[in-house]
Amino acid sequence: MADGFEAAWARVRVAAQWSQTASATLPDLDYGYDALEPSSARESWRLHHSKHHQTYVNNLNAALEKYTDAEARGDVAAMIALQGASASTAAAHINHSLFWKNLAPASAGGGGAPMGESLPSAIDAEFGGFRDGCRSGLRLGLAGLPPGKDTVAIHTTQNQDPVSMSGLVPLLGVDVWEHAYYLDYKNARPEYLKNIWKVVDMGEVAARLDQARA
């Protein structure tokens, strides 16, 4: 019961955070849709970004507009009713924005090994190596830095909940919802996950780790 209460309030905090912003926008990508081939086809990336993520953005802005109106009217019941939709779409927007930053074509560093001063040693210490331990574990969800700890961790969340709700600093997110791979891989999620590593930008992950530790 306590866990459910904490989770509910965490979602409320996400909604409250986004209610302070004028609107959400779809982030521009640092690469073209075709630049991530052959991990997935251009059309898959285009639909994922311009349709699926855009829908989350649209739904978030609609929910926030209704929430702001209810707040202005002092309609507490409506505010509470809208918090779930606001938090869910905000979390989806946050997670997808991280996902796009975690990717890069091979020509820009995608598919490389862990780099930097901190990331390789952190992965070795926690998982016994990148290929055998970390890569297989990360197929389950997101990796983050626990607060106050000099290590990295793999963490899974329900639905679209961001790992920050669990107190972790997000480092790497891999989208494993079916909309991320159904055009190219149908129901073969393991094949999608094997190939997504060809475009994961470990330089970006290393930079996020250094920033979090600083």
UniProtKB/TrEMBL annotation:
PROSITE patterns for the chain: SOD_MN
Location of the Manganese/iron superoxide dismutase C-terminal domain: 150-208
Top-level enzyme category: oxidoreductase
Binding positions (Mn(2+)): 48, 96, 175, 179
EC number: 1.15.1.1
Signal peptide: none
Annotated GO CC locations: mitochondrion
Keywords: Iron, Metal-binding, Oxidoreductase
PANTHER family, A to Z: SUPEROXIDE DISMUTASE 2 (PTHR11404), SUPEROXIDE DISMUTASE [MN], MITOCHONDRIAL (PTHR11404:SF6)
Name of the featured protein: Superoxide dismutase
Originating organism: Cafeteria roenbergensis
